Amino acid sequence: MNRSRTAVVALLALALATAGCVGTETGTPTASPLPQGSVDFPDGPKEPPERPAVLNESSVREYARTFEYRAAYNSLRINEYTDVTLACRVDGVSERPWGYEAVVTCTGHSDTNVPENATVTPGPHADWFTQSYRYRVGGTATHRDQVDPRDPVS
After folding, report:
1. Is residue 64 part of a domain?
2. Rounded mean pLDDT of 133-147?
């Protein structure tokens, strides 16, 4: 008798501990907002673009492309004598419950041609091998994560 009572108490405790954990969802799922976050932006002459006031496929496409172009440009630039060649494209934009997601790919390089009479040390040739980033743009936040590179931009 003691064993059966212990088993019943154990089953009752288990049922109470897992109440609400088993079963189906009720109601309509709500989209959680994109968590706050800021994207590190490299120093240089180009500033990050303003976030779009209205989020839609077109505004997020332009925002993500401009952001990535300017970030890559600043990363390639060494000084005022640097010539940067850079091409970027948007590989896709999708609407998500929290906002929009875009993938941007850039390919480029830079050369620094310092005049002979300048006091600046000549810089190296720098390559921006094809790199792709996923932008997640919500109502109040932008997230940027590197993803597997897509085909080079020509």
Report:
1. yes
2. 95
Number of domains in the chain: 1
End-to-end CA distance of the chain: 80
Nearest to 154 by CA among 86, 82, 102: 86
Assigned domain for 35 exists: no
73: in domain: yes
Q: Which H/E stretch holds residue 2? A: helix 2-17
Residue 17 has pLDDT above 60, yes or no: no
Kindly list the strands in the beta sheet with 82-96, ordered across the sheet, starting from the edge strand earlier in the chain: 82-96, 99-112, 126-138, 142-147
Query: How many Cβ atoms sit within 10 Å of the Cβ of residue 68?
Result: 25
Q: Domain for residue 55, yes or no?
A: yes
Tell me which residue range forms the domain holding 58: 46-154
Residue type, 87: A
User: Measured between alpha carbons, how far is 105 from 69 in angstroms, rounded to an integer?
Assistant: 9
Residue 76's H or E segment, with its range, is: helix 57-76
75 — pLDDT class (breaks 50, 70, 90) = very high
Distance between CA atoms of residues 4 and 12, nearest Å: 12
Which element (helix H / strand E) includes 8? helix 2-17
